[in-house]
Specification:
The protein is an alpha/beta fold. The chain has eleven helices and ten strands. The strands form three sheets. The protein has a five-stranded antiparallel β-sheet with strand order 1-2-3-4-5. The protein has a three-stranded parallel β-sheet with strand order 8-9-10. Strands 6-7 form a two-stranded parallel sheet. β6, α5 and β7 form a beta-alpha-beta unit. It is elongated, with a radius of gyration of 28 Å. The relative contact order is 0.07.
């Protein structure tokens, strides 16, 4: 019943194993920690170490093996039945093929890349090393992500936040620009200012390129508008008549005004041909 990507991975693995899934009741998710439900009348808990500790589940016997998996880059989620730890699932999130290319491209533009994740420190650092990410914050709750973004915006930094999950929504709202992935949760897309149509990370680079091109185009269009109006309006008002006896014909004024609009629209249409 969970919308979390880790839940999707578990269900996919269960299907591959041919396991028959039973219906659950009393399902409840605790954001950033885990889920609880009733299965055939028995209480089931699935979540991280913090979630287990909060529910008085002893996972000490599993700790060594769990740490080993985390150091290999896997996210560990513990399972418990009727107050007793059963074991854990180790889920490794493969790095997308274009992730390194996207990070390198953003670095080349002078941007600092920060990872904020609810996953464990081990897998987070493993991914960060592989991709060359500048800064890592792991084992975060939604309010932690929101706080980190708010701290940076409070210092005057310009922050763009990209996320795809329910847990990212508060941070997306706090950033100057919230960017949701189109294959993410509805809550993230509703909260963000920008939604990319898919989860392709290079789309972040394209969005950044497009935004820079658009802002440059706006400044050019303002220049055209000010030049046309700054020169044309005084002449149309007769500023040259006392000195040179020149008056601007209404037809010429109308043509100049139209040319101003054509220049601005034509310049804006160039964006369609700019490479991303």
């Amino acid at each position: 019943a969970s919308e979390h990507p880790l839940a999707d991975a578990v269900l996919a693995a269960a299907e591959e194993e041919g396991l028959e899934l039973e219906d659950v009741s009393a399902f409840e998710a605790e954001t950033g920690q885990g889920v609880r439900a009733s299965l055939s009348g028995k209480n089931v808990l699935i979540g991280n170490a913090r979630f287990m500790k909060a529910n008085s589940i002893d996972t000490e016997a599993l700790k060594e093996a769990a740490v080993r998996k985390a150091e290999e880059g896997a996210t560990v989620i513990f399972t418990a039945l009727e107050g007793r730890a059963l074991g854990f699932l180790a889920i490794k999130d493969p790095v997308k093929e274009t992730a390194r290319e996207a990070v390198d491209a953003l670095h080349a533009r002078g941007l600092k890349i920060v990872m904020m994740t609810g996953d464990g420190e081990g897998p987070a650092k493993a991914v960060a090393r592989e991709l060359g990410i500048d800064e890592v914050h792991a084992e975060l709750l939604p309010e932690d992500k929101h706080r980190l973004v708010s701290e940076r915006t409070g210092k005057g930094e310009r922050v763009a936040m990209a996320g795809d999950g329910i847990n990212d929504a508060p941070a997306l709202a706090a950033a100057h620009v919230g960017i949701a992935m189109g294959d993410g949760s509805d809550v993230a897309m509703e909260t963000a200012a920008v939604t990319l149509l898919n989860g392709e990370l290079l789309a972040l680079v394209k969005a950044h390129t497009l935004s820079r091109n658009v802002m440059a185009n706006i400044r050019q269009n303002l220049f055209f508008a000010f030049v046309y109006n700054g020169a044309g309006v005084p002449v149309a008002a007769g500023i040259l008549y006392p000195l040179f006896g020149i008056l601007l014909s209404p037809m010429i004024a109308a043509a100049a005004m139209s040319l101003s609009s054509v220049s601005v629209v034509g310049n804006a249409l160039r964006l369609r041909r700019r490479p991303l």
